[in-house]
Design a protein that fits this description.
The structure holds 2 protein chains of 2 kinds.
Chain A lengths: L3 H21 L3 H26 L3 H31 L13
Helix pairs in contact in A: 1-2, 2-3
Chain B lengths: L5 H7 L1 H18 L7 H29 L3 E3 L4 E3 L1 H20 L9 H18 L5 H19 L6 H32 L4 H8 L6 H17 L8 H8 L2 H8 L1 H17 L16 H20 L5 H22 L2 H32 L10 H4 L1 H15 L5 H16 L7 H26 L14 H19 L2 H15 L1
Antiparallel strand pairs in B: 1-2
Helix pairs in contact in B: 2-3, 2-5, 3-4, 3-5, 4-5, 4-11, 4-12, 4-15, 5-6, 5-12, 6-7, 7-8, 7-9, 7-10, 9-13, 10-11, 10-14, 11-15, 12-15, 13-14, 13-19, 14-15, 14-18, 14-19, 15-17, 15-18, 15-20, 15-21, 17-19, 17-20, 18-20
The chains are: A mainly alpha, B mainly alpha.
Amino acid sequence: MVPIAYYLVLSALLFSIGAGAFLIKRNIITVFMSIELMLNAVNLSFVAFAYQWHAIRGQIFVFFVMVVAAAEAAVGLAIIIAVYRTRNTLNVDQIDLMKL
Amino acid sequence: MTGTSYRELLLLALPQTVVVLAGLIALALDLSLFRNSTNRVRFSAGAAIACAGSLAAGCCILLSQTHGAIQTFQNGMLLSNPLTHLIQIALLLLAVLTILLSIDSTFTDHIGEYILLILLATAGMMFLVSTEDLLLIFVSLELLSLCLYVLTGFNKHSVHSAEAALKYFLFGGMSAAFLLFGFSYLYGLSGSTNLVRIAAATEGSVMDPLLMVAIVMTVTGFGFKVAAVPFHLWSPDAYEGAPAPAAAFIASASKVASFFIFAQVMVLGFAGTAGNAGWNVRAPGWAPLVAVVAALSLVLGNVAALAQKSVKRLLAYSAIAHAGYMLLAIVSHTQQSIAALLYYVLTYALTTIGAFGVVAVVEHQTGGDKLSDFAGLSRRAPLPSMCMLVFLLSLAGIPPLAGFFGKFYLFSAALAGTTASLSLLWLVILAVAMSAVSLYYYLQVLKRIYVEQPPADAAPIQISILSQIVLCLIAAIIILLGCAPNLLLRLIQNALNAIIA
């Protein structure tokens, strides 16, 4: 059996990769994908903990996260399309009309 | 686990159901019956349905209050007690005020959708404040956030609106991921998603590395939602780009719900791991972390607001500063300071919604929200100017108004509540000093309104009777609550006593 620590390390690693990509990547779609990666890292740790506790609630939580991520994708892509229509670019560096 | 009674569930969730139904009816009628009417008729009809729905939901809440005081469903998955009733009614009131203030606006042709989104967000907030389970907190927080992203980008003709929605969405999505990461560790540590059980399982193990990660991640996630420094970057852009009524809604109702649940998670879920943020009795835990966030918000919010040219942006930085004051109450987390927090956030929400209402009027007429657009407003629109005077002085904390008593009670609760005497004095002194700074930028706006001459070609501003009535009503409530704070405070304290007993 694989110890739970392995799953947690993998989950933390995926989450860090997602957070890093969120900050580094310049294409909006890629930035959006990195949020999805972070959510899936969370799913992995939920499932691992649910297995450890022999409790179903963690797995149920994962289903809710997946559904919410899908809804978020629908809203997010709509917003990205609205931005593309007005600006003709998907580069976050050029979405800079408002600044400090 | 006990069996599920759907009747009980439906009864507990009845107010939220009524709100959602009212939104769907408004959408359906807007798309069928009022399809060929003018925008003004459509907006009035939608607002009437929304008001009727909110009123019905409010009646449901009041009726359930007379039945049995405290009910829970599935171990705290859904709660019904005097405190949730009070906050839910306040949220409904704020939603109604938002809708009434947006009747005049012309930023969209999709009126049914607009009303539905506001009511869905309201339903999300009502679920958010009536639960102590991580699962429902997450789902209702996302319901609220998704509606707010769309509302931010609702003005399809504005480049700024789409950009604001994008920034709000990206930061909001990331904050949700941080929050969930914290939640997953809390679940892992306790094997439960119930806040009370999590507190029981984690009591006394502050130095557990997993718990430390969970605390930091949870504070980060909620920090984004309440726009506290250093997680505030989205908020000035979102407020500036969003249509003024949508910005008012984000700044008022969603702030109330977010602060309530932030305090609930910290006080209930991390009950045994607070630590201490006092200068002479430091102990590790979440309180020092929140204290640092509060101090940063106070300083950066107030200082950055000094340099703003756009009034909406100025209000956004002032919102960050006010988040700092309210976090101060969470740091001291006694019963008295939680009462102070609720009083503060409710009066703050009312004031902000009024201030954004005046900004919406000016923006509608002059096409901008720059400080220069407010020049000589007192001669062009005397009544809204008077209301703006009340709102801004209340935000600054000038005595006869609600904002003064909110600050006074909050600071005294923070000082009185701590175990070692005056240990939070450093944070309170900072807050008092910073609220003196804040007076400068509020008076900057008032100077434009009352002292400067209007532009030569300026005509009197046309403002509908309804908007005038709503603005005057809000101003009257703020003066009333400043003169007789006990009206609201007693309700809050009774509700808190009832759930602790």
